């Protein structure tokens, strides 16, 4: 989208016009703001830009295919895995969307999935920023979201990148930690394939420390980016926990993904919170009756699932998974070396602590529950597996790597790191860290500094006029949020096919038009219509408007009527 022209404020402003009309010392100025969707995206994706490009397709007489193609390139400027994140990102951008001040936030995640899938269906390939190859060689350890992101951002800048992956196939946690009904394998393969087509070499089945040492990588490459993720489960120390039919959540998902585990038995008990639901849903598809012991403490009863449950919990409940709330594991009962049942004790929520939080605590002498089982799955978290990289500096109080602001590992001069080994977070967190680490590596060799975005964030709830009313919301009409549908629960539990359906093209366009273009002009013309002093002039299509301040009296009507908050009075 083109910038609006800006006109300098006159050096002197009279106190009043000749006709006696009083003047304000303030004058309008176009100032682009950062939309909250972009601000809350860990990867800094230009959400507003690509959605508005779709929304304005008709008004600019662009064929929709052209708009979708360009939207794909706007989106992948920062995120090379849009079809992945469109399915598995919990979309913090939507939580901050200003549209929620009017009705419901824009379905950004659904739009991202559509645009990403459009790129796959139309075989859109990435474009390099330069055709000149650089002499530096970069090694990336791990082909999960952080590693793939770093490889992409380095490869489009001309670097020779080699990824080393310990698993037989690429994707890391995307492939081995997320079930294929949530993230289909062909989506992973397509988005990884585009990165390979940039010239990135990927070597699978390579273990650092045995097949190749970290010191050898340091000697053969100019920089090393470590993105090994957190595949090491945190195991509980309880008698019976080492039984062959007791798995951590990540172990169960990895074994199911690799085909090593094809039968979980008739009765499966899963202990954990939202993230453990994937394991329960996999077990359901393997033919088991699943009982989920939900220990997060945010739900007390099955009746609360519809209103308060996470997306994962709602999906599992719809598929017929049984729930037990506020129970703690007390004992694993074993026979002949295998777990056959669990004993659970009822819990209650504590009083609020100093931080205002409540915690589940066991009720002494309270209800007990015994459940027979063929398989027990629990999820208490994960940590990195540093085998072959034991000497890398860790944080003092945890297992995560210690890095500086440029993602350089402490006490190292060419080893950078990102992803879950810095903090356990979202897929989008990992993609963002891969991106910014790539920028840091690029700066190391070129001195080029990536410009930080210092624009003010525009929050509509904070913008009120002198009557205390919201300045921007009134312009927009209430409109229904377009929602992706899911396959019928009774049908989908019979296979591992994708749960989620894309929006239709018509739904996509309707949803894109709900975007309020926060902080940037979208040619509504309100400033022109409300100005009674002829201080706002129309420019040719695409150039928007400009101010002619010699006739402006500073009445603020343009600023107060601008629905995207693009005008400041200065």
Order of strands in the sheet with the most strands? 4-3-2-5-17
| CATH-derived topology of the largest domain | FAD/NAD(P)-binding domain
Our count of helices gives: 19
**Structural domain count:** 4
What's the CATH C level of the largest domain?
Answer: Alpha Beta
Unreliable stretches covering 5 or more consecutive residues = 1-20
CATH superfamily of the largest domain: FAD/NAD(P)-binding domain
**Average of pLDDT:** 91
Biggest beta-sheet profile: 5 strands, parallel
Radius of gyration: 27 Å
Please give the share of residues in helix: 25-40%
Shape: globular
- Class by helix and strand content? alpha/beta
Separation, N- and C-terminal Cα atoms:
24 Å
Percentage beta strand: 15-25%
Topology:
Elements (H helix, E strand, L loop, with lengths): L27 E3 L5 H5 L6 H9 L8 H12 L6 H7 L3 H5 L11 H14 L15 E5 L3 H11 L4 E6 L7 H4 L8 H12 L4 E4 L9 H7 L2 E4 L5 E2 L12 E3 H10 L8 E6 L4 H9 L3 E6 L10 H4 L2 H8 L3 E4 L1 E9 L2 E12 L10 E3 L5 E5 L2 E4 L3 E2 L31 E3 L9 H20 L42 H4 L12 H8 L13 H5 L5 E3 L6 E3 L9 H5 L5 E3 L1
Parallel strand pairs: 2-3, 2-5, 3-4, 5-17, 7-15, 8-9, 8-15, 9-10
Antiparallel strand pairs: 1-20, 6-16, 11-12, 12-13, 12-14, 18-19
Helix pairs in contact: 2-3, 2-17, 3-6, 4-6, 7-15
How would you characterize the overall build of this protein?
The protein has 570 residues and is α/β, with parallel strands linked by helices. It has helices at 36-40, 47-55, 64-75, 82-88, 92-96, 108-121, 145-155, 173-176, 185-196, 214-220, 249-258, 277-285, 305-308, 311-318, 427-446, 489-492, 505-512, 526-530, 557-561, and strands spanning 28-30, 137-141, 160-165, 201-204, 223-226, 232-233, 246-248, 267-272, 289-294, 322-325, 327-335, 338-349, 360-362, 368-372, 375-378, 382-383, 415-417, 536-538, 545-547, 567-569. Strands 4-3-2-5-17 form a 5-stranded parallel beta sheet, sandwiched between helices.
